[in-house]
Amino acid sequence: MARHMAVELPLLLVLGIAAAALARRDTQAFRGWNRRGLPGLLAATAITGYWMLPVALDLAVLDPRWSVAKVASMIVAGVAWGVSWPRAGVVLQAFFTINWCAMTLVAGLLYQDAPQQLCSVYLADQQGAAGRALVIFAVAGLAAWMATLMRKLARDEARLRI
Length: 162
Known about the structure:
By secondary structure, the protein is mainly α. It is 78% helix and 0% strand. The chain has helices at residues 2-22, 38-50, 54-62, 64-84, 90-113, 124-161.
């Protein structure tokens, strides 16, 4: 479970983001339906949220079709995020960042504090490790976004002074 949550899912998401960056000029076709990045960020958040559910991880382990769906959907989520993030303004980025981090933090805390085993194919100690990884991702994600925002605001302020 920790391998899924802390290694496999994030790497698939990063793979999708990298694919979107490599295909930047080909993403013009998405402009019509992805104005300001809202649909893409919504899709990415829904997909990543789904794969935080214990039943989803169970299905991916027990059924190869769900495993393929997991890989494909996480890459699609990465592409959607990679295409949408630059189009989103600061307010929209804040909305999705804070909500994703809150969702991830709560899921991580629930995985750690659940009195029973949530996934039928993983042991309770793996559940706790996955929960700790989710908490780390939530805190690190929020910190990284805030650092990026502060740099952008400082750059914008310096440009106004010139």
